[in-house]
Amino acid sequence: MTSVASVRVHLSVEGRDYGPTAAAHGNGSHGDAPLLPGWNLLLRHRKLRVGRMRELIFEVIQEADGGYCAECLTETIVTEGDTWEELRQNVREVVRAFYFDQPDKLPTTLRLHLVRDEVLAYA
User: Fold this and answer.
1) Are 34 and 43 in contact (CB under 8 A)?
2) pLDDT over 70 percentage in the chain
3) Cβ–Cβ under 8 Å, residues 69 and 61
4) What is this structure's pTM?
5) Confidence of residue 118 (pLDDT cuts 50, 70, 90)
6) pLDDT given at position 7
7) CB-based contact 49:4 (threshold 8 Å)
8) Residues 55, 101, 99, CA angle at the centre, nearest 5°?
9) CA 36, CA 14: separation in Å to the nearest integer?
10) Which end of the chain is more exposed for a tag (fewer CB within 10 A), N or C?
11) Residue 20 · residue 11 · CB < 8 Å
């Protein structure tokens, strides 16, 4: 489900009003949607769609035992798996569980970012 917000624009440029009330004062040239000078742009009441979050990013590290641990960077979600495929499945399940009471906020994309920390020593 997508929610809709209505936005009304009112501008004042160099003492001249542009917006929904400008026509009432005789400043606008197009009624409720005046043309801004030099912009060739007609302002109208626009509707903004506020959709759901698009992507969650997980930082994945490989444990010493060979398994993987994934931690979400924006939410408090952590999971693990013995193999990469198991980790992928666990991430999907834990995200569904995290948003079980807010299905409209369920992300459309899950990104797994594998981080490899390697220490090199000079001899």
Assistant:
1) yes
2) 57
3) yes
4) 0.55
5) confident
6) 42
7) yes
8) 25
9) 12
10) C
11) no
Q: Which two tokens stand for residue 85?
A: 């495929």
Q: Which residue has the higher pLDDT, 64 or 86?
A: 86
What is the identity of the amino acid at 114? L
- Strands 78-81 and 109-115 turn out to be unpaired
3-state secondary structure the chain: CCEEEEECCCEEECCEEECCCCHHHCCCCCCCCCECCCCCCECCCEEEEECCCCEEEEEEEECCCCCEEEEECCCCCEEEECCHHHHHHHHHHHHHHHCCCCHHHCCCEEEEEEECCCCCCCC
**Tokens representing residue 40 in the block:** 């060739």
